[in-house]
């Protein structure tokens, strides 16, 4: 009876956490569900990729992966904390030249046509719903603290995984952002966290919109979604096209390699700069996270002039050496004769500059 009581308590506690713990997100409103159900990118009640994408490992492979994670990789994270270049808030707000600033992983601050766009601003210490668990950020501090950031014209989200949509970050950013632009279904999380629904817009693949003179398009990616029990692929994932007078940018979001990159390139390319996923990969889950050589090919497929590899440099979410993504991407770029930039965390990169950052700072 004691054992049964303990099991019952655990089950009830789990149900209560799922229902009432805010970081796990929310459920779509009636209006959002109507749009979700009308999407052509759904089958059997969930969103699907354009091509077959296997995400589940067999039991033996799963056991091996778990063992490898427990064992760990001595080079899986830096031996000392990474140093961020510090940003000046006043300069961020007044700078009229187009630029991007990488905060580590996939968090990118974009200045374009005098507007400030924050892409996937995961600025927390741990990509987890429970901060006491999970690997810590490699750097001791951000390039600029959230409360020091100037007003943000728009926040773009690619999907609802914890390393891209962070509860703590959104709670601090929601009073600074004028607009949230997200894939279908993701608004539910934001509204649960107190973001005004009137400043959120949700978008399906190939949706195009204009925002204060900028032209944006939600484009396909090859990935998945979910942040709680039973909600896998209930929300959409995407990449983003961002076009202004000064430059045209492509952000891949999280994605395995696929034909959608050429499709995007044919429709919207070429791009002055691409921000391409490059990290947290493994041959065993390459269908949802590109290998670095595929990242370079995807950059070429969309017609990118210069590529910045992202989705690395902040957290350990895979088994490779922490610097392996950028070194493999640089090598592949040299072999393919395409330009790559390797800015440090917090380094301001001028879009269209005759010389892009090329240091091997991670060494």
UniProtKB/TrEMBL annotation:
Keywords associated with the record: Hydrolase
Q: Which residues form the Metallo-beta-lactamase domain?
A: 116-312
Q: Does the keyword Cell membrane apply?
A: no
Give yes or no: UniProt keyword Hydrolase: yes
Q: Which Pfam families match?
A: Lactamase_B_2
Q: Which reaction does it catalyse?
A: 3',5'-cyclic CMP + H2O = CMP + H(+); 3',5'-cyclic UMP + H2O = UMP + H(+)
The record describes the protein's role as: Counteracts the endogenous Pycsar antiviral defense system. Phosphodiesterase that enables metal-dependent hydrolysis of host cyclic nucleotide Pycsar defense signals such as cCMP and cUMP.
Its name, as the record gives it, is MBL fold metallo-hydrolase
């Amino acid at each position: 009876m004691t054992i049964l009581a303990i099991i019952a308590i655990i089950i009830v506690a789990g149900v209560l956490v799922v229902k009432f713990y805010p970081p796990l997100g929310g459920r779509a409103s009636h209006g959002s569900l109507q749009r979700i159900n009308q999407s052509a990118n759904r089958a059997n009640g969930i969103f699907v990729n354009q091509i077959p994408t296997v995400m589940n490992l067999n039991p033996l492979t799963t056991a091996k992966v778990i063992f490898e994670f427990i064992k760990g990789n001595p080079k899986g994270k830096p031996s000392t904390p990474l140093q961020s270049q510090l940003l000046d808030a006043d300069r961020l707000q007044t700078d009229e030249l187009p630029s991007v600033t990488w905060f580590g992983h996939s968090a990118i601050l974009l200045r374009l046509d005098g507007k400030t766009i924050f892409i996937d601003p995961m600025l927390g210490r741990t990509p987890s719903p429970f901060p006491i668990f999970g690997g810590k950020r490699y750097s001791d501090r951000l390039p600029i603290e959230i409360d020091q950031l100037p007003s943000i014209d728009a926040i773009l989200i690619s999907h609802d995984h914890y390393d891209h949509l962070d509860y703590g970050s959104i709670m601090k950013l929601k009073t600074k952002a004028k607009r949230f632009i997200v894939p279908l279904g993701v608004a539910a999380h934001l509204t649960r966290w107190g973001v005004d629904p009137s400043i959120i817009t949700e978008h399906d693949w190939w949706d195009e919109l204009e925002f204060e003179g900028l032209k944006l398009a939600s484009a396909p990616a090859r990935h998945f979604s979910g942040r709680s029990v039973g909600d896998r692929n209930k929300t959409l994932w995407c990449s983003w096209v961002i076009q202004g007078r000064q430059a045209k940018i492509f952000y891949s979001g999280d994605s395995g390699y696929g034909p959608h990159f050429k499709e995007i390139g044919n429709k919207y390319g070429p791009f002055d700069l691409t921000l391409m996923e490059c990290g947290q990969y493994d041959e065993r889950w390459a269908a949802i996270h590109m290998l670095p050589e595929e990242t370079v090919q995807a950059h070429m497929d969309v017609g990118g002039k210069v590529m910045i590899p992202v989705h690395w440099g902040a957290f350990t979410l895979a088994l490779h050496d922490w610097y392996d993504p950028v070194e493999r991407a640089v090598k592949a770029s040299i072999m393919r004769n395409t330009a790559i930039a390797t800015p440090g965390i917090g380094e301001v990169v001028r879009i269209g500059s005759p010389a892009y950052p090329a240091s091997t700072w991670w060494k």
